[in-house]
Amino acid sequence: MTARSSRLATRVVRAARSLPPGAGAPVVPPLVQSVAFAHGSAAEQDAVFANERPGYVYGRYGSPTTAALEAALADLDAADGAVCFATGMAAIHAYLTGCAVARGGRVVAQEDPYGATRAMLERLAREQGADVVFVDPTDMSAVVRALEERPTRVLYVESISNPLLRVTDIAALASLAHERGARLAVDATFASPVLTRPRELGADVVIHSLTKYVNGHGDAMGGSVAGPADVVAEMRDRAIVDGGYLPPHEAWLILRGLRTLELRVRRQCETALAVARHLASHPKIGRVHHPGLPSHPQHELARRQFGDAYGGVVSFALKRDTSDAAFRFLDTLELIASATTLGDLYSEILYPAMSSHRRMDPAERARLGISDGFLRLSCGIEDPADLIADVDAALERT
Question: What is the pLDDT of residues 269-281, one digit of tens each?
């Protein structure tokens, strides 16, 4: 029985399973929101499953829309390939467990990364006996000691740390790692491909929380791991078996955001520098962290590594360095949203001790400089004068 002669119940179920033919390619990649993919024969389907021919079989194994995003990210990061995950933390977990911990490998990690990253590494050490050591990545002698203490598989750092905004010397760290048989993995979320492309500086693996600058619109979560072919193959297997693959709708939204990445980030960097300069002279601010300020310990490195842009985030501590003062400041802001993310079109401020670094031991937070009055401001694309006025008004009432 042909589809045309089928009864109504069959015809409505099978209606419009494919687009009608016609000339003209869409300028926006289509959203292919399909879990399963049909093939002309079982042999064709088997060849796709066996990776003997390109194609798609099931959403957890890959989708055309997500693959389009992966191809774009691999190109931006100068990598053999990229694999996308449902969140940035899923991407970090897949890489560190799949390419280091699972093989009994040692991880030397930055001591002041995103709070959830540190919490995950501490849990791997506690629950799985993973060999993890934390180090100040700006202290090269400390990095060398950590790498040489025992054979190390991965040196893991952030291009700009969250939230202290330390800048890591990617080229120098890559050399130190490679000379000692380790790979350098860089979480480049805060810098984005606009400021730096770590593989061009010698890094092996680049990780992004796509939720942040790459998407930039606050409406989709995702993460990616880009690197050499063996890493890509391991990440693909992890995404399939562990079920963390990025769904196509989120990939389509992130692709949408990616197109304006440079325009947004350039504006955000300019605004953040203006805000940082203003706060640096404000009597109610105790200290300001921003790589664009000459007072920043890695300012010259940032200038060499990033060029004329220094990131869209400003971190600062209130002169009255207490949680009460921080809460009052947050509650008084009118334009800037008190929200636990960054990199969006609109400005957002976060209190690390309450959110991103809540799991960290308070004494360790204090040692690193994440004090009770410490805040992280992600600048959007609003008028800088309006953001400064909002901050000033809140400081007057703090």
Answer: 999 999 999 999 9
